[in-house]
């Protein structure tokens, strides 16, 4: 995997700091994306770049930082032009996964960019186990159930919004996109995510469907506010006593989630037909 920007001084410095602070057994980059923006008008000319990295942290079983904790450590050191998505697993679980030929972890260690690896990590790929799992029918049933759940949540969300139950509609939209992401990740990456954070789930989906990030671009204040309503709906609807959703927010998100669903299902059907 060609990752030309991984050798920047800034990234090397942050990785070095993290190695000292959380002493991971290994850090592997399994995804990278960049975006250049050029703005020209009569009043101002400027350009900027944004870089995104998907990182796997393999940690000692005795000191295990959570995904979001590592993200916070990194973002506090990075400029706003860089974002990260982090998966964190214990060294014992990754060793076992590699030994059993887990397709997700095997692919990462085969093709990813290893940024750091301790000599005693013992993260060896078992080439003889790189075969299709006997559990494929069971796995297919599992993620197709998640697709069906997502569809049901979306239908109920549409009904709730149409009945002026905008808070319930937004809660169901969150559930719909969460299940949609989980189903897609299981199907394409053969990985079972543990997070309920839809920002991180969407980031994982964008590893193989880059267009999904365009559904929620978050380039303007309004776009950021729109996505924040969706991202926080799971907790806000349940715990905020005076929670209110402007009707236009609910219907705008219904359109976006439906568009997201179309992208994800199109990719799934394309892969299933091969």
From TrEMBL:
InterPro entries assigned to the protein according to its UniProt record, in alphabetical order: HEPN_dom
PROSITE patterns in the record: HEPN
Gene3D superfamilies hit by this protein: Nucleotidyltransferases domain 2
Pfam families: HEPN (PF05168)
Superkingdom of source: Bacteria
SMART domains registered for this protein in UniProt: HEPN
Residue ranges of every copy of the HEPN domain listed in the record: 147-270
Protein name, as recorded: HEPN domain-containing protein
Organism of provenance: Pseudochryseolinea flava
Organism classification: Bacteria, Pseudomonadati, Bacteroidota, Cytophagia, Cytophagales
């Amino acid at each position: 995997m060609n990752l030309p920007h991984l050798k920047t001084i800034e990234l090397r410095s942050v990785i070095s700091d993290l190695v000292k602070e959380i002493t991971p057994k290994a850090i592997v980059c399994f995804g990278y994306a960049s975006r250049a923006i050029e703005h020209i008008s009569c009043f101002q000319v400027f350009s900027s770049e944004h870089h995104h990295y998907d990182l796997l942290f393999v940690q000692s079983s005795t000191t295990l930082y959570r995904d979001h904790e590592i993200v916070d450590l990194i973002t506090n050191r990075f400029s706003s032009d860089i974002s990260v998505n982090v998966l964190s697993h214990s060294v014992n679980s990754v060793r076992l996964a590699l030994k059993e030929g887990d397709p997700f972890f095997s692919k990462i260690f085969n093709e990813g960019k290893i940024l750091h690896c301790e000599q005693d990590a013992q993260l060896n790929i078992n080439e003889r186990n790189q075969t299709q799992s006997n559990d494929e029918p069971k796995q297919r049933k599992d993620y197709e159930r998640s697709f069906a759940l997502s569809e049901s949540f979306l239908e109920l969300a549409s009904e709730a919004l149409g009945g002026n139950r905008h808070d319930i509609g937004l809660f169901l939209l969150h559930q719909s996109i969460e299940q949609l992401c989980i189903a897609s990740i299981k199907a394409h990456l053969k990985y079972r995510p543990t997070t309920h954070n839809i920002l991180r789930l969407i980031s994982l989906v964008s590893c193989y469907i880059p267009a999904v990030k365009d559904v929620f671009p978050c380039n303007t204040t309004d776009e950021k506010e729109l996505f924040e309503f969706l991202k926080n709906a799971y907790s806000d609807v349940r715990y905020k006593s005076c929670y209110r959703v402007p009707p236009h927010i609910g219907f705008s998100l219904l359109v976006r989630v439906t568009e997201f669903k179309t992208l994800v299902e199109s990719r799934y059907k394309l892969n299933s037909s091969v």
